[in-house]
Structure formats: C-alpha cells, structure tokens
Design goal:
Blueprint (H helix, E strand, L loop, with lengths): L16 E2 L2 H19 L6 E3 L6 H11 L6 E3 L10 H7 L4 E3 L10 H5 L5 E2 L3 H4 L2 H13 L3 E2 L9 H12 L15 H6 L5 E3 L2 E3 L12 H4 L14 E2 L9
Parallel strand pairs: 1-9, 2-3, 3-4, 4-5, 5-6
Antiparallel strand pairs: 7-8
Length: about 240
C-alpha cells in the first residue's frame, strides 16, 4: 500500500505523488496489524518510512509500531535531523535502521558510538567502496550495531555481490536487502551474478567480486531516462518533500 493517493489539492497544484502523513501513519499501522493477523509472528517484517515524517510524528509512529515487533523501522528521520535520534531512542524500543543517504563518517559515527541505532544501512559506493565499509563494520561491531547494507533493485549485480561478500566477512551481519530476483537481461550482462534460493543469497567461487560485465550484451539494453512518480512526493498543500 503506497502512502499517497488522489486527494483534494490546491488550484494549480503541481503534478506529483501526494500523500498525507497522518493518513499514511494510520494506514501503515492498520496494514501491519492485518499482516500479523494473517501471517503470524514467525515472519520478520520491516518498514521504510523514507524520511517522510516530521520528528515528533516519527517518534509517535515508532511507539505505535512497537506492537508489530519489526526487524527494524528504517529511516524514520532524515540525515539533517540526526540530533533527533537521541530523542527517538528515549521514546521507543523499536529497532532503528538508517544510513542509505549517508556520505561520510561524520554522519554515522555519533549514531553508532552512542548506540542510537540498531542497523546501519549504508550504500557502499556512496561511502567510497569496500575499504570504508570494512571500517564501518568494525566500528559497528564495537557498539553492538548490525549491518543491513542498502540493496535496492536499481544497483547492479556487482553491487549486490559486494554487499554479500561484506556480509560474509561481518561478525555483526544483520540482514541483507534483496528487493527481487535478477531478471534475464541482468544475468546476461553480468555473468556470475549472485542469486537467491530458499531465503538465502549466494555468490560464486570466482576470484574477487566474482561478477563480470559483457559489454556487447549491455549494448542490447540501452538505458531509459524516465522520472518515477514516487520521486515527486508532495504534501496535501503541494509542498515538495523527500521521495
């Protein structure tokens, strides 16, 4: 269920994915209560807020979501509001994950060393690659924070393989994001891509990262530059907010 829908908008309002934070919070809580009723308590559930709430709303929402027993609540606050994570920690026991928008150590060191988060969600290429990631793993291990690297469907199989290799080398591995299985064009362009089977992810035994690039195959699949609707997120009054 997406947090935006058709609603009454101001005259001349710009196009976009409009949503009401209050409606989003109520609908999400209702959805997860129904999921627990249907699937029970033996399945792990996560939820990504996508930094779309104001800090006080995020704290109230996190407290309401405690009853769902999530694996983690992701990105309840944006990077520029990291000061609110201390308040959030004091208000709720829900596990918190954050980090896919972070770029440098100044954004995550305090959150980790002060034990204000439970999972680190960094995007490996965004923070500089494997070497910085290994340093983050060691730092997190010191303070009881687990890894949950960012692994959306729009990174290459090479990126997925790097994530999994880091997972295998992490004593504090938590969980790995895997949005959907790779489709045939990706498997053709990236021979040696990782794969999922019965809930586990696997990499091959080739040296290094283990994934190659077939440039001739890649030429058959030119990129298409389109703007996804969810990146044009707006509040009911038309204010542009985080996608």
């Amino acid at each position: 269920r997406e947090p935006y829908c058709e609603m009454n908008k101001p005259l001349g309002a710009s196009d976009g994915a409009y949503y009401d934070p209050k409606v989003y919070m109520r609908a999400t809580l209702d959805m997860f209560e129904q999921l627990r009723q249907h699937f029970g308590w033996d399945i792990g559930l996560c939820h990504d807020v996508h930094e779309r709430l104001f800090p006080n709303d995020a704290a109230n929402f996190a407290k309401e979501m405690e009853k769902i027993k999530l694996v983690f609540l992701e990105d309840p606050l944006p990077p520029e509001q990291v000061g609110w994570f201390e308040v959030l920690r004091q208000q709720t026991t829900i596990p918190i994950a954050v980090g896919e928008l972070f770029n440098n150590p100044n954004e995550w060191i305090n959150l980790i060393s002060r034990r204000l988060i439970d999972y680190i969600r960094l995007h490996i290429t965004q923070i500089g690659g494997i070497t910085p990631a290994r340093k983050v793993i060691a730092l997190c291990d010191t303070f009881g924070v687990r890894t949950a690297w960012h692994g959306p469907s729009d990174i290459t199989p090479i990126g997925h393989a790097v994530n999994i290799h880091l997972d295998l080398a992490s004593p504090n591995f938590g969980i790995q994001e895997w949005l959907k299985d790779l489709e045939e064009p990706s498997l053709e362009v990236f021979p040696g891509a990782p794969y999922r089977k019965k809930g586990f992810l696997y990499v091959n035994e080739n040296p290094g990262i283990g994934v190659d690039i077939d440039e001739k195959a890649a030429a058959k699949y030119p990129c298409v530059n389109t703007l996804p609707k969810w990146t044009m997120t707006r509040l009911p009054d038309g204010t542009s907010v985080r996608p």
